[in-house]
Specification:
By secondary structure, the protein is α/β, with parallel strands linked by helices. It has one domain: Rossmann fold (3-Layer(aba) Sandwich). It is built from 9 helices and 7 strands; from the N terminus they run βαβαβαβαβαβααβαα.
Length: about 260
């Protein structure tokens, strides 16, 4: 299995799933630019990745994926330091929990900007640059198991991720003629720092009841799917939404309001 190119860009790459994606891409021969809003975190993550993969480079760029100029700067850095970008993983994410009537407009804007607008801006930049350089690349956008079901308390996140999945389909249609593939990977419940201090024992038990493969996902589970879609093994795959969730969507997802927002139930 060979990657479609040796220069990759991963948004939200300082920790969790994004860090694992960068790590696995580097293990398969890529140099990587990773982004995060926090300069100290992204600098440390890039240094750790470079140290873990002798002969490969990781560069950290502080960027807000919802701001077009930040996205352009990340791509400029990648091209200037590593060469034309052939692999893009749009992973940056955030979330809050509230029922619709309690959800602040600012939270809606923040989540939709990060997930949906950020994916649009990065994909737009990637396709334009790949076309200009003649790069037959692979773009992998990050969806969610939430779009295969519905849970109360997560309307903004679920709407944004559903938008990512449909946006990916249109992008695949438009970019395919240039040899550019665009796909979505939709993680299920994955053990990452974002869940620390939020997941209660009762909520965790509910997730376990939903799993067909009875364990939480690991960031590496998602990273391996990304590497596959960015490789020649997926050379005739575009516009798909690959669910990587241990089978939880088959049984139905736990209700966020019941377990995490009982005062809004």
């Amino acid at each position: 299995m060979e990657l479609v190119g040796t220069t990759a860009l991963v948004t939200g790459g300082s920790k969790g799933i994004g860090y694992a994606e960068a790590d696995h891409l580097m293990a398969h021969g890529a140099d990587v630019v990773i982004t995060s809003r926090k300069q100290d975190e992204i600098t440390a993550a890039a240094a750790a990745l470079t140290a873990a993969h002798p002969g490969r480079r990781a560069i950290g760029v502080a960027a807000d994926t919802g701001i077009a100029e930040d996205i352009r700067r990340a791509y400029d850095t990648a091209e200037g330091e590593l060469g034309p970008v052939a692999i893009v993983v749009n992973n940056a994410g955030n979330s809050t929990l509230d029922t619709i009537t309690e959800l602040p407009e600012s939270d809606w804007d923040s989540v939709v900007d990060t997930h949906l607008k950020g994916t649009f801006l990065s994909t737009k930049e990637a396709i334009a640059r790949m076309k200009a350089s003649g790069t037959k690349g692979a773009i992998v956008n990050t969806g969610s198991v939430e779009t295969f079901g519905a849970t109360r308390g997560n309307a903004h996140y679920t709407a944004a991720k559903a938008g990512v999945a449909k946006f990916t389909e249109v992008a695949a249609l438009e970019a395919g003629r240039y040899g550019i593939r665009v796909n979505t990977v939709s993680p299920g419940a994955v053990a990452t720092p974002i869940g620390e201090g939020v997941v209660t024992p009762e909520f965790e038990a509910a997730w376990h009841r939903s799993f067909s493969i009875d364990r939480y996902g690991e960031p590496a589970d998602i990273a391996k799917a990304v590497v596959f879609l960015a490789s020649d093994y997926a050379g005739w795959i575009t516009g798909v939404n690959l669910l990587v969730d241990g089978g939880s969507a088959l049984r139905g997802l736990p209700d966020y309001v019941h377990y995490l927002l009982p005062d809004q139930d």
